[in-house]
Amino acid sequence: MDAFVELSAELTGFSAEELTSTGLVEQYRALADGASEAEIIQLWYTGVWRGVIPTERAYAEGLAWKAIGVSPPGSAAPGFGSWEQRPRRSAR
Amino acid sequence: MRAVVVGAGFAGSLVAKVLGDNGFRVLVLEAGAEPNEDAVSRFRTALVKSPLKPYRRTAAAPSSDYLINTGPYAYSSPYLRMNGGTGTAWTGITPRMRPDDFHAADVGRGRNWPWGYDVLEPYYRAAEWEIGIAADADEQRQHLPVADGYRYPMHALPRTYLDHAVASVVDGALVDGHELLVVGTPQARNGIPVPGYRLDGQRCAGFASCVPICPENAKYTPHRTQKQWSATVELRTRCVVNRVHADESGRVTKVSYQRYEDDTSGRHTRHSEEADVVVLAAHAIENAKLLLMSRLANSSDQVGRNLMDHPALLTWALMPQAVGPFRGPGSTTGIEAFRGGPDRARRAPFRIEIGNWGWGWAAGSPDSDTAEFVAAGLRGQALREAVGDRVSRQFALQFEIEQEADPENRVTLAADLDPLGNPRPSIHYGLSDYVKDGLLAAKRASDGIFELLGADDHTSYKPDEERYFEHDGEPLRYWGAGHSGGTHVMGTSPRDSVVDQWQRCWDHPNLYAVGCGSMPSLGTSNPSLTMAALALRTAEHLVSRAR
């Protein structure tokens, strides 16, 4: 496993497979060269890199939302009335 | 008849439709540009997802961020100058006002309407069908008179899991002497239609971003009404009306406007348009600005005065169990028990929204929670679990406090000019003790509700935060609700009001100022539905006068 993914998994609590499935590993690897732990976590969890959300995907794949088990606002349509159902906790 | 409508937002689009359907030639002059097509994308990549963020802005027609605050408190309610207006970014929550809201002065607070709820009730029904409202009449009758046999055009939307969790505990309980009941909130978004109503657009699929943007157009916006305009209605965007002209008798003859092409500069050309009737529908603050610039309609000295909003109080807490926030519309139910009654004589009444979107508005969740846990040293699985546990249990209460009409809260023309050379609006705004007592009572109600729910209260208001203040030794804070009103107030006499019961300027027989600016009181209801009902009533009056 490559070092960036390994470090990211250790910091975020999400598996290498979960991180890879976001499609953001290559983009984040390039951005996060030399970044602090806190910056790497913020990037993965919220899609924010030094005050900017670089792409729509960075927002939509934010791990904070996956930890809650919902899609970020404005990114997915779970269906009419879906909000009435018992919440699904983490996607783990 | 040739009508000019100034503003293609909520009220202007409805008035133009009715006039166009009844043989008027209508020119709608909209200050803003056409909406941008990348609004959803802009929303997703906006760091702070505030209401105006996704939308196109122009230098020539600035939105509310060009207001200049001069009073003791900041007026912080946004509005959008773009085709469709603030009705593009709105929440889509559409409660009616209650009967006692029309008689605020009877308890010594603010102003009375020229008539009561009964006069507006048929227009509420018409507006609900025109806009497309999802609600259940029997449920609304629990706190409001709704005509016998009436059906809203769509069934009430399903409640959220959170709504059920709250209702199962608080229904029937007492807080500050009020019996609580969770009631579904009427919604301007597509659900399941009743026979006779045809859906326009998709059914709400739960994007959970209604403010500021509904990606599937399940939420009503004025663009939906504009699609129904007859061929006799012409829209010109990027046209900023900067003067209404009247002859010596007071009759309005024409409007002058500035047309621009470039989004980033004040470069423009000058034009004018003659009209038999002019309808100002540019937003409460913009209507007042235009009347003041034109030196019209102000024999009462009330133009720009009586500026109101709903100062909103937010409180936030954790439920004992996961409730699944950030799902569905922003608020699907409320607690209506504090909206009226004898209490309103001594403190401002308020409506309580149960907020479905966690602490997003109140505290910037989940980004803020993540930052907090990371700063505390959490990493890996512990971080993931902490964020999941914290945010999954979040909910908020949003209190809309009534603000009474006060002539000292007002819009005037600043010396500063915008890029077109027009004065920027200057806002002098304050909160009375009546409002502050209402905010304090709201906080106490919040305490009581959180206690009933066994919720862990995380509300805090800090002196270094915007719009913080103390009242009776208690820290408080208010947020702007985006509900500007009162600036061309309606009344029964030209001596102390700007428009008559038809929203016609007392001083000018063919000049109308429509919208929330006409409202003598806002009650505790999100005002767009009432604005729509008033617009339909005025449009009907214009049609009958032309015959």
Lay out the secondary structure.
The complex is a heterodimer of chains A (92) and B (547).
Chain A: H1 3-12, H2 16-20, H3 25-31, H4 37-46, H5 56-60, H6 63-68
Chain B: E1 2-6, H1 10-21, E2 25-29, H2 39-45, E3 68-69, H3 117-131, H4 137-140, H5 161-170, E4 174-175, E5 178-179, E6 182-184, H6 222-226, E7 233-236, E8 239-246, E9 252-259, E10 269-274, E11 277-280, H7 284-294, E12 312-318, E13 333-335, E14 350-355, H8 360-363, H9 367-375, H10 380-392, E15 394-401, E16 410-417, E17 423-428, H11 433-453, E18 456-457, E19 468-471, E20 474-477, E21 511-513, H12 528-546
Parallel strand pairs in B: 1-2, 1-11, 2-7, 3-17, 11-21
Antiparallel strand pairs in B: 4-5, 6-13, 8-9, 9-10, 12-15, 12-18, 13-14, 14-15, 16-17, 19-20
Helix pairs in contact in B: 1-12, 3-12, 9-10
Account of the protein in words:
The complex is a heterodimer of chains A (92) and B (547). Chain A has helices at 3-12, 16-20, 25-31, 37-46, 56-60, 63-68. Chain A has one domain. Chain A is built from six helices and no strands. With 92 residues, chain A is an all-alpha fold. The two termini of chain A are 21 Å apart. By secondary structure, chain B is an alpha/beta fold. Chain B folds into two domains: 1-92 and 116-128 and 221-308 and 405-430 and 484-547, FAD/NAD(P)-binding domain (3-Layer(bba) Sandwich); 133-219 and 312-402 and 432-477. Helices cover 24% and strands 18% of the residues of chain B. Chain B contains twelve helices and 21 strands. Chain B has helices at 10-21, 39-45, 117-131, 137-140, 161-170, 222-226, 284-294, 360-363, 367-375, 380-392, 433-453, 528-546; strands spanning 2-6, 25-29, 68-69, 174-175, 178-179, 182-184, 233-236, 239-246, 252-259, 269-274, 277-280, 312-318, 333-335, 350-355, 394-401, 410-417, 423-428, 456-457, 468-471, 474-477, 511-513. Chain B has a six-stranded antiparallel beta sheet. In chain B, helix 1 (10-21) packs parallel to helix 12, helix 3 (117-131) crosses helix 12 and helix 9 (367-375) packs across helix 10. The relative contact order of chain B is 0.19. Classes of the chains: A mainly alpha (92), B alpha/beta (547). Chains A and B meet through helix 1, helix 4, helix 5 and helix 6 of A and helix 2, helix 9 and helix 10 of B.
